[in-house]
Design a protein that fits this description.
Structural class of chain A: mainly alpha
Radius of gyration of chain B: 18 Å
Chains: A mainly alpha (220), B mainly alpha (219), C mainly alpha (85)
Order of helices and strands of chain B: HHHHHHHH
Radius of gyration of chain A: 19 Å
Strand content of chain A: under 5%
Helix content of chain A: over 70%
Oligomer: heterotrimer
Shape of chain B: globular
Number of helices of chain B: 8
Largest sheet of chain A: none
Number of strands of chain B: 0
Number of helices of chain A: 7
Shape of chain A: globular
Largest sheet of chain B: none
Distance between the termini of chain A: 32 Å
Largest interface: A-B, 28 and 29 residues
Number of strands of chain A: 0
Distance between the termini of chain B: 20 Å
Chain lengths: 220, 219, 85
Amino acid sequence: MKNWYKILSVLLILYTIFLGLLGSVPRLDILNETIRNLYYHVPIWFAMLFMMSVSIWYAIKYLLSSNAVHEVKSFTAAKVGFFLSIPGIITGCLWAKFTWGTYWTFQDPKLNGVAIGILIYMAYFILRSSITDELKRARISAVYNIFAYVMLIVFIMILPRLTDSLHPGNGGNPAFGKYDLDNNMRLVFYPAIIGWICFSWWIFNVKNRIAQLNLKLNDQ
Amino acid sequence: MNLNQISTLIKKEFLLEFRQKASLGGILVYVAATVFISALSFKGQIHTHEWNALFWVILLFASVTISSKSFLKETKGLGLFNYVYYSARTFIMAKIIFNMVLMLIISLITLFFYIWFIGGNIQNFSLFFITLALSSTGFAGVLSLMSAIASKANNNFALMSILSFPVLMPMVMISIRLSRQAIDGLSWSVSYDFLLILAALNVLVIMLANLLFPYLWND
Amino acid sequence: MINKIYFIAFLFAALVTNAQEATQPQMADGMRAEGKIYVVVAVMAVIFLCVAAYLFRIDKKLKKLEDDLKNNTSTSSVTDKEKKK
Protein backbone atom coordinates (compact mmCIF):
# COMPACT_ATOMS: atom_id res chain seq x y z
CA MET A 1 0.00 0.00 0.00
CA LYS A 2 1.81 3.05 -1.27
CA ASN A 3 -0.77 5.62 -0.22
CA TRP A 4 -0.91 4.75 3.48
CA TYR A 5 0.58 8.04 4.62
CA LYS A 6 -1.93 10.07 2.63
CA ILE A 7 -4.88 8.35 4.30
CA LEU A 8 -3.10 8.52 7.66
CA SER A 9 -2.56 12.28 7.30
CA VAL A 10 -6.21 12.92 6.47
CA LEU A 11 -7.40 10.76 9.36
CA LEU A 12 -5.00 12.35 11.84
CA ILE A 13 -5.84 15.92 10.85
CA LEU A 14 -9.57 15.14 11.02
CA TYR A 15 -8.93 13.66 14.45
CA THR A 16 -7.20 16.86 15.57
CA ILE A 17 -10.07 18.96 14.22
CA PHE A 18 -12.58 16.95 16.25
CA LEU A 19 -10.68 16.39 19.46
CA GLY A 20 -8.76 19.63 19.25
CA LEU A 21 -11.97 21.62 19.49
CA LEU A 22 -14.05 19.27 21.61
CA GLY A 23 -11.44 17.81 23.97
CA SER A 24 -10.74 19.28 27.35
CA VAL A 25 -7.86 21.72 27.82
CA PRO A 26 -6.42 23.34 30.93
CA ARG A 27 -8.07 26.61 31.95
CA LEU A 28 -5.37 29.26 31.87
CA ASP A 29 -5.41 33.02 32.09
CA ILE A 30 -4.55 35.09 28.98
CA LEU A 31 -4.48 31.97 26.79
CA ASN A 32 -8.07 30.98 27.56
CA GLU A 33 -9.57 29.05 24.65
CA THR A 34 -6.72 29.99 22.26
CA ILE A 35 -4.56 27.30 23.80
CA ARG A 36 -6.15 25.06 21.16
CA ASN A 37 -4.15 26.87 18.52
CA LEU A 38 -1.25 24.73 19.73
CA TYR A 39 -2.80 21.88 17.69
CA TYR A 40 -2.81 23.85 14.44
CA HIS A 41 -0.12 26.55 14.59
CA VAL A 42 2.80 24.54 15.97
CA PRO A 43 2.42 21.40 13.77
CA ILE A 44 2.47 23.60 10.65
CA TRP A 45 5.86 24.98 11.72
CA PHE A 46 7.06 21.44 12.35
CA ALA A 47 5.95 20.48 8.85
CA MET A 48 7.74 23.52 7.42
CA LEU A 49 10.97 22.63 9.22
CA PHE A 50 10.57 19.07 7.98
CA MET A 51 10.20 20.26 4.38
CA MET A 52 13.27 22.50 4.72
CA SER A 53 15.26 19.52 5.99
CA VAL A 54 14.02 17.45 3.05
CA SER A 55 15.16 20.24 0.75
CA ILE A 56 18.65 20.20 2.28
CA TRP A 57 18.80 16.42 2.13
CA TYR A 58 18.16 16.45 -1.62
CA ALA A 59 20.53 19.42 -2.14
CA ILE A 60 23.35 17.40 -0.54
CA LYS A 61 22.37 14.37 -2.59
CA TYR A 62 22.47 16.50 -5.73
CA LEU A 63 25.94 17.88 -4.98
CA LEU A 64 27.23 14.36 -4.40
CA SER A 65 25.59 12.79 -7.45
CA SER A 66 24.97 15.65 -9.96
CA ASN A 67 21.64 14.07 -10.79
CA ALA A 68 19.13 16.75 -11.85
CA VAL A 69 16.24 14.76 -10.35
CA HIS A 70 17.50 15.44 -6.82
CA GLU A 71 17.87 19.14 -7.47
CA VAL A 72 14.27 19.40 -8.68
CA LYS A 73 13.18 17.57 -5.52
CA SER A 74 15.15 19.97 -3.36
CA PHE A 75 13.58 22.99 -5.05
CA THR A 76 10.08 21.54 -4.77
CA ALA A 77 10.54 20.82 -1.06
CA ALA A 78 11.71 24.41 -0.53
CA LYS A 79 8.59 25.66 -2.31
CA VAL A 80 6.28 23.50 -0.17
CA GLY A 81 8.09 24.66 3.00
CA PHE A 82 7.72 28.28 1.94
CA PHE A 83 4.04 27.72 1.25
CA LEU A 84 3.53 26.21 4.72
CA SER A 85 5.17 29.21 6.34
CA ILE A 86 2.24 31.37 5.17
CA PRO A 87 -0.49 29.65 7.25
CA GLY A 88 2.08 29.25 10.02
CA ILE A 89 2.76 32.96 10.17
CA ILE A 90 -0.90 34.01 9.87
CA THR A 91 -2.07 31.67 12.66
CA GLY A 92 0.86 32.88 14.75
CA CYS A 93 0.00 36.55 14.18
CA LEU A 94 -3.63 36.00 15.17
CA TRP A 95 -2.60 34.13 18.28
CA ALA A 96 -0.06 36.80 19.18
CA LYS A 97 -2.68 39.53 18.78
CA PHE A 98 -4.96 37.75 21.21
CA THR A 99 -2.40 36.82 23.86
CA TRP A 100 0.42 39.37 23.58
CA GLY A 101 -1.59 42.27 22.19
CA THR A 102 0.34 42.77 18.93
CA TYR A 103 0.48 40.99 15.61
CA TRP A 104 4.25 41.15 15.42
CA THR A 105 7.03 41.90 17.86
CA PHE A 106 10.77 42.09 17.37
CA GLN A 107 11.37 41.08 20.96
CA ASP A 108 10.81 37.42 20.29
CA PRO A 109 13.61 35.23 18.90
CA LYS A 110 11.25 32.70 17.34
CA LEU A 111 9.55 35.42 15.30
CA ASN A 112 12.93 36.83 14.27
CA GLY A 113 14.10 33.34 13.31
CA VAL A 114 11.02 32.88 11.17
CA ALA A 115 11.52 36.25 9.50
CA ILE A 116 15.12 35.39 8.66
CA GLY A 117 14.06 31.98 7.39
CA ILE A 118 11.52 33.54 5.04
CA LEU A 119 14.10 36.07 3.82
CA ILE A 120 16.54 33.23 3.15
CA TYR A 121 13.98 31.32 1.11
CA MET A 122 13.05 34.42 -0.87
CA ALA A 123 16.76 34.98 -1.58
CA TYR A 124 17.00 31.34 -2.68
CA PHE A 125 14.10 31.72 -5.11
CA ILE A 126 15.48 34.99 -6.48
CA LEU A 127 18.90 33.40 -6.93
CA ARG A 128 17.36 30.47 -8.76
CA SER A 129 15.37 32.67 -11.08
CA SER A 130 18.32 34.95 -11.88
CA ILE A 131 20.46 32.22 -13.43
CA THR A 132 19.41 30.95 -16.83
CA ASP A 133 21.88 28.15 -17.40
CA GLU A 134 20.27 25.02 -15.92
CA LEU A 135 23.35 23.15 -14.75
CA LYS A 136 24.86 26.25 -13.20
CA ARG A 137 21.58 27.17 -11.54
CA ALA A 138 21.18 23.75 -9.95
CA ARG A 139 24.69 23.73 -8.53
CA ILE A 140 24.75 27.29 -7.21
CA SER A 141 21.31 27.20 -5.64
CA ALA A 142 22.11 23.87 -3.95
CA VAL A 143 25.25 25.41 -2.43
CA TYR A 144 23.34 28.45 -1.22
CA ASN A 145 20.54 26.27 0.15
CA ILE A 146 22.90 24.21 2.29
CA PHE A 147 24.85 27.22 3.57
CA ALA A 148 21.72 29.21 4.38
CA TYR A 149 20.08 26.28 6.16
CA VAL A 150 23.07 25.78 8.45
CA MET A 151 23.15 29.50 9.25
CA LEU A 152 19.41 29.48 9.94
CA ILE A 153 19.74 26.56 12.37
CA VAL A 154 22.61 28.38 14.08
CA PHE A 155 20.49 31.53 14.26
CA ILE A 156 17.55 29.70 15.79
CA MET A 157 19.88 28.04 18.31
CA ILE A 158 21.83 31.10 19.47
CA LEU A 159 19.10 33.71 19.30
CA PRO A 160 17.28 32.69 22.49
CA ARG A 161 20.53 33.39 24.37
CA LEU A 162 20.56 36.95 23.07
CA THR A 163 16.99 38.02 23.76
CA ASP A 164 14.18 36.97 26.05
CA SER A 165 11.30 35.20 24.43
CA LEU A 166 7.60 35.70 24.79
CA HIS A 167 7.05 32.13 23.71
CA PRO A 168 6.29 29.65 26.46
CA GLY A 169 9.29 27.93 27.95
CA ASN A 170 11.77 30.80 27.53
CA GLY A 171 12.62 33.88 29.51
CA GLY A 172 10.47 33.28 32.56
CA ASN A 173 7.29 32.38 30.68
CA PRO A 174 5.33 29.33 31.73
CA ALA A 175 6.73 26.42 29.78
CA PHE A 176 4.79 24.26 27.39
CA GLY A 177 5.95 21.39 29.56
CA LYS A 178 3.18 22.45 31.87
CA TYR A 179 0.54 21.77 29.23
CA ASP A 180 2.38 18.84 27.78
CA LEU A 181 1.98 17.20 31.12
CA ASP A 182 -1.71 17.41 30.44
CA ASN A 183 -2.21 14.03 28.83
CA ASN A 184 -5.35 15.12 27.02
CA MET A 185 -3.42 17.72 25.08
CA ARG A 186 -0.53 15.42 24.37
CA LEU A 187 -3.01 12.97 22.88
CA VAL A 188 -3.96 15.55 20.25
CA PHE A 189 -0.70 17.45 19.82
CA TYR A 190 1.54 14.54 18.82
CA PRO A 191 -0.87 13.09 16.24
CA ALA A 192 -1.27 16.63 14.86
CA ILE A 193 2.47 16.87 14.26
CA ILE A 194 2.58 13.48 12.52
CA GLY A 195 -0.54 14.31 10.51
CA TRP A 196 0.79 17.63 9.21
CA ILE A 197 4.21 16.19 8.40
CA CYS A 198 2.53 13.40 6.39
CA PHE A 199 0.25 15.95 4.69
CA SER A 200 3.21 18.13 3.71
CA TRP A 201 4.97 15.06 2.36
CA TRP A 202 1.90 14.29 0.26
CA ILE A 203 1.82 17.81 -1.21
CA PHE A 204 5.55 17.52 -1.84
CA ASN A 205 5.02 14.18 -3.54
CA VAL A 206 2.37 15.56 -5.94
CA LYS A 207 4.33 18.72 -6.74
CA ASN A 208 7.50 16.74 -7.23
CA ARG A 209 5.87 14.35 -9.67
CA ILE A 210 4.60 17.29 -11.73
CA ALA A 211 8.11 18.78 -11.72
CA GLN A 212 9.66 15.45 -12.74
CA LEU A 213 7.17 15.14 -15.62
CA ASN A 214 8.17 18.63 -16.74
CA LEU A 215 11.83 17.67 -16.53
CA LYS A 216 11.18 14.58 -18.65
CA LEU A 217 9.20 16.56 -21.23
CA ASN A 218 11.98 19.14 -21.48
CA ASP A 219 14.53 16.42 -22.06
CA GLN A 220 12.62 14.89 -24.96
CA MET B 1 45.54 22.76 0.38
CA ASN B 2 49.00 24.22 0.19
CA LEU B 3 50.26 26.94 2.54
CA ASN B 4 52.86 28.22 0.07
CA GLN B 5 50.27 28.60 -2.64
CA ILE B 6 47.91 30.34 -0.24
CA SER B 7 50.55 32.89 0.70
CA THR B 8 51.46 33.57 -2.94
CA LEU B 9 47.80 34.02 -3.77
CA ILE B 10 47.31 36.44 -0.87
CA LYS B 11 50.39 38.41 -1.93
CA LYS B 12 49.07 38.58 -5.46
CA GLU B 13 45.69 39.79 -4.21
CA PHE B 14 47.26 42.57 -2.17
CA LEU B 15 49.48 43.58 -5.06
CA LEU B 16 46.48 43.80 -7.36
CA GLU B 17 44.47 45.68 -4.76
CA PHE B 18 47.17 48.31 -4.16
CA ARG B 19 47.94 48.66 -7.83
CA GLN B 20 44.32 49.48 -8.55
CA LYS B 21 44.14 52.52 -6.32
CA ALA B 22 40.64 53.31 -7.51
CA SER B 23 38.99 50.34 -5.84
CA LEU B 24 40.57 50.73 -2.41
CA GLY B 25 40.20 54.50 -2.50
CA GLY B 26 36.60 54.04 -3.56
CA ILE B 27 35.82 52.09 -0.42
CA LEU B 28 37.57 54.65 1.77
CA VAL B 29 35.58 57.48 0.23
CA TYR B 30 32.42 55.41 0.57
CA VAL B 31 33.02 54.86 4.28
CA ALA B 32 34.00 58.47 4.93
CA ALA B 33 30.98 59.80 3.05
CA THR B 34 28.56 57.47 4.85
CA VAL B 35 29.94 58.42 8.24
CA PHE B 36 29.85 62.09 7.31
CA ILE B 37 26.20 61.87 6.22
CA SER B 38 25.28 60.10 9.45
CA ALA B 39 27.15 62.73 11.46
CA LEU B 40 25.26 65.50 9.68
CA SER B 41 21.89 63.83 10.11
CA PHE B 42 22.36 63.07 13.81
CA LYS B 43 24.04 66.39 14.67
CA GLY B 44 25.84 64.96 17.65
CA GLN B 45 22.69 63.90 19.47
CA ILE B 46 23.05 60.15 19.57
CA HIS B 47 22.78 57.63 22.36
CA THR B 48 25.23 54.80 22.78
CA HIS B 49 22.88 52.06 21.59
CA GLU B 50 21.96 53.88 18.40
CA TRP B 51 25.61 54.80 17.95
CA ASN B 52 26.42 51.12 18.09
CA ALA B 53 23.64 50.01 15.72
CA LEU B 54 24.53 52.69 13.18
CA PHE B 55 28.19 51.70 13.30
CA TRP B 56 27.36 48.09 12.51
CA VAL B 57 24.99 49.00 9.69
CA ILE B 58 27.70 51.13 8.08
CA LEU B 59 30.22 48.36 8.56
CA LEU B 60 27.84 45.76 7.12
CA PHE B 61 27.33 47.73 3.92
CA ALA B 62 31.04 48.48 3.65
CA SER B 63 31.86 44.76 4.03
CA VAL B 64 29.38 43.76 1.34
CA THR B 65 30.83 46.42 -0.96
CA ILE B 66 34.39 45.25 -0.35
CA SER B 67 33.71 41.59 -0.93
CA SER B 68 31.25 41.95 -3.80
CA LYS B 69 34.08 42.50 -6.27
CA SER B 70 36.41 39.84 -4.91
CA PHE B 71 35.39 37.37 -7.61
CA LEU B 72 34.89 39.93 -10.34
CA LYS B 73 38.41 39.46 -11.67
CA GLU B 74 38.10 35.69 -11.82
CA THR B 75 35.47 35.62 -14.50
CA LYS B 76 37.87 36.39 -17.34
CA GLY B 77 41.11 34.85 -18.62
CA LEU B 78 42.89 35.01 -15.28
CA GLY B 79 40.20 32.85 -13.74
CA LEU B 80 40.95 30.08 -16.16
CA PHE B 81 44.61 30.17 -15.22
CA ASN B 82 43.78 30.05 -11.51
CA TYR B 83 41.40 27.19 -12.15
CA VAL B 84 44.10 25.09 -13.76
CA TYR B 85 46.84 26.07 -11.36
CA TYR B 86 45.28 26.12 -7.89
CA SER B 87 42.91 23.80 -6.08
CA ALA B 88 39.52 25.18 -5.04
CA ARG B 89 40.23 25.00 -1.31
CA THR B 90 43.52 26.87 -1.62
CA PHE B 91 41.77 29.52 -3.60
CA ILE B 92 38.88 30.08 -1.19
CA MET B 93 41.21 30.11 1.84
CA ALA B 94 43.36 32.77 0.19
CA LYS B 95 40.25 34.80 -0.61
CA ILE B 96 38.93 34.50 2.93
CA ILE B 97 42.22 35.54 4.53
CA PHE B 98 42.65 38.44 2.13
CA ASN B 99 39.09 39.63 2.70
CA MET B 100 39.51 39.25 6.44
CA VAL B 101 42.60 41.48 6.55
CA LEU B 102 41.01 44.00 4.24
CA MET B 103 37.79 44.10 6.27
CA LEU B 104 39.68 44.51 9.52
CA ILE B 105 41.62 47.45 8.07
CA ILE B 106 38.46 49.01 6.67
CA SER B 107 36.55 48.50 9.92
CA LEU B 108 39.33 50.20 11.90
CA ILE B 109 39.32 53.09 9.45
CA THR B 110 35.53 53.28 9.75
CA LEU B 111 35.84 53.32 13.53
CA PHE B 112 38.42 56.08 13.30
CA PHE B 113 36.20 58.25 11.08
CA TYR B 114 33.19 57.39 13.19
CA ILE B 115 34.77 58.47 16.45
CA TRP B 116 36.24 61.53 14.78
CA PHE B 117 32.99 62.75 13.20
CA ILE B 118 30.32 61.50 15.58
CA GLY B 119 32.28 60.96 18.74
CA GLY B 120 31.91 58.05 21.07
CA ASN B 121 33.17 56.65 24.28
CA ILE B 122 34.19 52.98 24.28
CA GLN B 123 34.96 51.90 27.80
CA ASN B 124 36.48 48.52 27.03
CA PHE B 125 38.43 49.08 23.84
CA SER B 126 40.25 45.73 23.77
CA LEU B 127 36.94 43.86 23.83
CA PHE B 128 35.65 46.09 21.04
CA PHE B 129 38.77 45.36 18.99
CA ILE B 130 38.49 41.59 19.51
CA THR B 131 34.84 41.76 18.45
CA LEU B 132 35.82 43.65 15.31
CA ALA B 133 38.55 41.12 14.50
CA LEU B 134 36.30 38.10 15.05
CA SER B 135 33.37 39.56 13.15
CA SER B 136 35.53 40.57 10.19
CA THR B 137 36.79 36.98 10.02
CA GLY B 138 33.23 35.66 10.00
CA PHE B 139 32.05 38.30 7.54
CA ALA B 140 34.97 37.42 5.26
CA GLY B 141 34.04 33.73 5.41
CA VAL B 142 30.38 34.29 4.57
CA LEU B 143 30.86 37.07 2.05
CA SER B 144 33.63 35.31 0.10
CA LEU B 145 31.30 32.39 -0.58
CA MET B 146 28.37 34.69 -1.29
CA SER B 147 30.37 36.77 -3.75
CA ALA B 148 31.46 33.58 -5.48
CA ILE B 149 27.78 32.67 -5.81
CA ALA B 150 26.82 36.16 -6.99
CA SER B 151 29.68 36.20 -9.51
CA LYS B 152 28.28 33.03 -11.07
CA ALA B 153 24.89 34.76 -11.29
CA ASN B 154 25.78 37.77 -13.42
CA ASN B 155 27.57 39.58 -10.58
CA ASN B 156 24.73 41.67 -9.39
CA PHE B 157 25.32 43.86 -6.32
CA ALA B 158 21.63 43.74 -5.33
CA LEU B 159 21.70 39.96 -5.50
CA MET B 160 24.84 39.94 -3.38
CA SER B 161 23.16 41.89 -0.58
CA ILE B 162 19.92 39.90 -0.82
CA LEU B 163 21.88 36.67 -0.47
CA SER B 164 24.22 37.74 2.30
CA PHE B 165 22.12 39.83 4.69
CA PRO B 166 19.91 37.06 6.07
CA VAL B 167 22.86 34.71 6.28
CA LEU B 168 25.00 37.29 8.10
CA MET B 169 22.27 37.95 10.66
CA PRO B 170 23.46 35.63 13.47
CA MET B 171 26.94 37.16 13.38
CA VAL B 172 25.67 40.71 13.26
CA MET B 173 23.38 40.09 16.25
CA ILE B 174 26.18 38.66 18.38
CA SER B 175 28.63 41.36 17.32
CA ILE B 176 26.17 44.11 18.17
CA ARG B 177 25.59 42.54 21.57
CA LEU B 178 29.32 42.22 22.24
CA SER B 179 30.19 45.73 21.14
CA ARG B 180 27.36 47.10 23.27
CA GLN B 181 28.89 45.35 26.25
CA ALA B 182 32.27 46.81 25.29
CA ILE B 183 30.81 50.32 25.10
CA ASP B 184 29.06 49.93 28.43
CA GLY B 185 32.29 48.61 29.93
CA LEU B 186 30.83 45.43 31.39
CA SER B 187 33.27 42.96 32.89
CA TRP B 188 34.92 40.33 30.71
CA SER B 189 33.15 37.42 32.36
CA VAL B 190 29.84 38.58 30.83
CA SER B 191 31.28 38.50 27.32
CA TYR B 192 33.20 35.20 27.36
CA ASP B 193 30.14 33.22 26.34
CA PHE B 194 29.41 35.40 23.34
CA LEU B 195 33.05 35.58 22.28
CA LEU B 196 33.13 31.79 22.32
CA ILE B 197 29.94 31.56 20.25
CA LEU B 198 31.30 34.07 17.72
CA ALA B 199 34.60 32.19 17.43
CA ALA B 200 32.77 28.87 16.99
CA LEU B 201 30.57 30.47 14.35
CA ASN B 202 33.67 31.64 12.48
CA VAL B 203 35.14 28.15 12.48
CA LEU B 204 31.82 26.74 11.24
CA VAL B 205 31.51 29.32 8.46
CA ILE B 206 35.05 28.82 7.21
CA MET B 207 34.64 25.04 7.27
CA LEU B 208 31.37 25.30 5.33
CA ALA B 209 32.94 27.64 2.79
CA ASN B 210 35.78 25.15 2.31
CA LEU B 211 33.33 22.31 1.94
CA LEU B 212 30.97 24.01 -0.49
CA PHE B 213 33.26 26.16 -2.64
CA PRO B 214 34.69 23.26 -4.69
CA TYR B 215 31.17 22.62 -6.03
CA LEU B 216 30.97 26.20 -7.29
CA TRP B 217 34.49 26.12 -8.70
CA ASN B 218 34.25 22.95 -10.76
CA ASP B 219 31.68 23.85 -13.34
CA MET C 1 -43.09 23.49 26.12
CA ILE C 2 -39.98 23.20 23.92
CA ASN C 3 -39.39 26.89 24.34
CA LYS C 4 -39.48 26.46 28.08
CA ILE C 5 -36.94 23.64 27.96
CA TYR C 6 -34.65 25.79 25.82
CA PHE C 7 -35.06 28.67 28.22
CA ILE C 8 -34.18 26.52 31.20
CA ALA C 9 -31.20 25.04 29.38
CA PHE C 10 -30.02 28.52 28.48
CA LEU C 11 -30.42 29.70 32.04
CA PHE C 12 -28.53 26.71 33.28
CA ALA C 13 -25.70 27.31 30.80
CA ALA C 14 -25.53 30.96 31.75
CA LEU C 15 -25.43 30.02 35.40
CA VAL C 16 -22.66 27.51 34.87
CA THR C 17 -20.55 29.98 32.89
CA ASN C 18 -21.14 32.71 35.44
CA ALA C 19 -20.18 30.47 38.30
CA GLN C 20 -16.97 29.53 36.53
CA GLU C 21 -16.13 33.09 35.54
CA ALA C 22 -15.90 34.08 39.15
CA THR C 23 -13.21 31.56 39.97
CA GLN C 24 -11.58 30.43 36.74
CA PRO C 25 -10.29 31.91 33.47
CA GLN C 26 -13.02 32.51 30.95
CA MET C 27 -13.60 29.80 28.34
CA ALA C 28 -16.16 29.35 25.60
CA ASP C 29 -18.36 27.20 27.81
CA GLY C 30 -21.58 28.73 26.56
CA MET C 31 -20.73 27.72 23.01
CA ARG C 32 -20.18 24.18 24.15
CA ALA C 33 -23.34 24.05 26.23
CA GLU C 34 -25.45 25.28 23.35
CA GLY C 35 -23.84 22.80 21.00
CA LYS C 36 -22.73 25.51 18.57
CA ILE C 37 -19.19 24.19 18.81
CA TYR C 38 -20.31 21.23 16.67
CA VAL C 39 -21.07 23.66 13.86
CA VAL C 40 -17.51 24.97 14.03
CA VAL C 41 -16.10 21.46 14.06
CA ALA C 42 -18.33 20.39 11.17
CA VAL C 43 -17.37 23.41 9.06
CA MET C 44 -13.66 22.87 9.65
CA ALA C 45 -13.94 19.15 8.94
CA VAL C 46 -15.89 19.72 5.72
CA ILE C 47 -13.39 22.31 4.47
CA PHE C 48 -10.46 20.07 5.24
CA LEU C 49 -12.13 17.02 3.68
CA CYS C 50 -12.81 18.99 0.50
CA VAL C 51 -9.16 20.04 0.28
CA ALA C 52 -8.02 16.47 0.91
CA ALA C 53 -10.41 15.06 -1.69
CA TYR C 54 -9.20 17.65 -4.20
CA LEU C 55 -5.61 16.65 -3.52
CA PHE C 56 -6.59 12.99 -3.99
CA ARG C 57 -8.15 13.80 -7.37
CA ILE C 58 -5.05 15.70 -8.48
CA ASP C 59 -2.98 12.74 -7.37
CA LYS C 60 -5.13 10.35 -9.42
CA LYS C 61 -4.97 12.51 -12.54
CA LEU C 62 -1.23 12.83 -12.17
CA LYS C 63 -0.91 9.09 -11.88
CA LYS C 64 -2.82 8.69 -15.13
CA LEU C 65 -0.62 11.27 -16.83
CA GLU C 66 2.52 9.52 -15.62
CA ASP C 67 1.29 6.19 -16.94
CA ASP C 68 0.32 7.75 -20.28
CA LEU C 69 3.74 9.31 -20.64
CA LYS C 70 5.47 6.07 -19.74
CA ASN C 71 3.46 4.13 -22.34
CA ASN C 72 4.03 6.86 -24.91
CA THR C 73 7.79 6.96 -24.47
CA SER C 74 8.09 3.21 -24.49
CA THR C 75 5.99 2.90 -27.66
CA SER C 76 7.83 5.77 -29.34
CA SER C 77 11.18 4.22 -28.50
CA VAL C 78 9.93 0.96 -29.96
CA THR C 79 8.90 2.73 -33.16
CA ASP C 80 12.30 4.45 -33.27
CA LYS C 81 13.99 1.09 -33.10
CA GLU C 82 11.71 -0.25 -35.79
CA LYS C 83 12.54 2.71 -38.00
CA LYS C 84 16.23 2.09 -37.51
CA LYS C 85 15.75 -1.49 -38.54
